[in-house]
Amino acid sequence: MLRLIALTLLAWPLCLGANRLSDSQSPYLLQHADNPVDWYPWGPEAFERAEAENKLVFISIGYSTCHWCHVMNRESFSDEEIAAYLNDNYICIKIDREERPDIDSVYINFVQNLTGTGGWPLNVWLTPDKKPFFGGTYFPPQDDPRRGRGFLQICKDINGFWQNDPDGLLSRSESIVSTLNAKDGAQTSEADTTAISIDRIADAISAHLFAFDEDNKGFGRGEKFPSANTLSFLLRSAATTQLHPEDRETARRIGLETLDAIITGGIRDHLGGGFHRYTVDAGWKLPHFEKMLYDQAMLANALIDAWQLTGEDRYKQAVTETLDYVSRDLRDQRGGFYSAEDAESLDPENPSRKREGAYYLWTHQDFERLFPNEAQRAFLIQYFGVKKAGNAPYGNFPREIFEGYNTLRILVSTSTPEQQEWLQDGLAILKSERATRARPHLDDKVITSWNGLAISAFARAGLVFERPDYTQVASDAAQFILQELYDENSQTLYRLFRQNTSPVTGFAEDYAFLVEGLLDLYEATADHRWIQKANTLQDAQDAKFADQEEGGYYLFESTEDIVFNRSKRPSDSALPSPSSVAAKNLARLSQLYDSEIRLKQAETAIAAFGADLQRSGSNFPTLREAILYVARKPLQIVIAGDPESDSVKTMLSEVNRRLLPARMLIYADQADGQAFLGEHLEFIQTARSYDNQATVFVCENFVCQMPTEDQKVLAQQLDAKR
Hints:
This protein is of the alpha+beta class. The protein is 49% helix and 11% strand.
């Protein structure tokens, strides 16, 4: 039905006026503050005017580092003719999807159901009562035989439809909302406790193998996203002893081969560290050049898993380069992490205009100028795959804008000391040269949920690689979030900070991701106060978002702003599902508090999506990983002793060089932390170190092996768990 409506409306229009975005907190909205379009921010004023003037509403959703959002801004929203039409015929609203993921989620769901695809910019036409009836992503400004129907003509057609048959359009919008709400209700998964089974892990490994691109690595045959949560799931599955050895080997192979393609490909910034959002080709060669905080955090965690699984230094190097980039370029001086860097930047060859990838791309002439030593230049050109015509692959994207430009990617390895010296010297020269270029726009919003992911990555890296500087970065970020974005009296998180705290309250992902970060921070610091804060935030998430009847967590609280029913979204997108992360958090808290209630919550959160897990093998990697926490006896590693002592650090090093999925690290610190845990865990009350040496207890469901102060004995006990 929705597709028939789309075809009916595809002959259709849009809006212009004085701009109201100049006081916005959002960098994305501020990028449109000088448009001739009479933009409103989302709010009652816009809809009241639409109702009073009997006009349709046009909403455009994006984010400040989105390449195609910039393109549409230049082509359409800065065009006087288009803006005039919009202003005369529509009420126009700009929305930052990162500020309001609740609004974005419901309207992108509508567009995906309507067209089969979604993305940003997301452009949707609504009736004055917020009900959508048509939408899409990028539109060219005018009709274009290559790029499709023009935005202006679509706006005119839609407005004509409204003028000629408003009752018909209102009826269609009502029908669409009812259809989608009914569809979401019908697709609500039946609770199924049999979903909590290791079999669901094996099912997913087979499904991922079926989708695996053997030639290019990764999953699917088109553009490639890192899908870091999928990679972590595969690597942790590879270390899960309850699985069949063949499944474990499959998970290991496809997970590591994909990570290797990512860390050698053009999606990685080989000079400054970090990763771009995705590649437009199947072979990881040419990215859209924006860099998102959440990608850095989740890929760092997957790479930590890879190092723990293999011990290979290339994964550790990729982690440290990524986190060094984040702490250097995406970190507020008060400790919070910024959101992203743009795909576009000023063109060094023409500083009056911006060009996608201008900060990152190189010409063959650049290498000729920078490297006069012919042998070194020849090696570096071969190493990075530099070509005179440029090295953009062929594909379904405007390849001509990259002609003559090269994305650095690693095609060969260094085989001699001289080549290694050439490479290190070449990297230094390229970094120095790139430092003279204008950096991409920085989106300096501090988003709570994304900071939770980054806190987790820095805490884990600090623990695993014995980097107290990383642990301190994680602690500083957690303190910033709790000071600036948390109201202790109401136990309310706020969504973001930019110069001051946003009035937008947090969503389920903000609570879930921050709780996970705080639990990882406890393991890195042995400070029990992080456990207490995580538990308090979990209580708040339960109160605000839990589906008390069927389990799982809604993405946002019920509000009149949203005309669609609330959804829980168990599947992962660019970010993991909040319900899935919450299930892991609940399982971890159940062990720290010896709480049957928390364990039951975790089981219910997984079982709530049991039918989904049965139907789809590859869409729920984080939910399947949560199964590892509840489908078998939990593995606890209890370390008794002063966390600052050398003996404890030695034992921690032994523990953390292995990937032990779903294991819990618990400190009996002989001080306040042990006293706190002892209030809930009787076993911890008696855990003591002997002769001032760290004593380690390797336990399953708090049934422990013989305690040991011997690192070799500990290694044997841990290896038995692998």
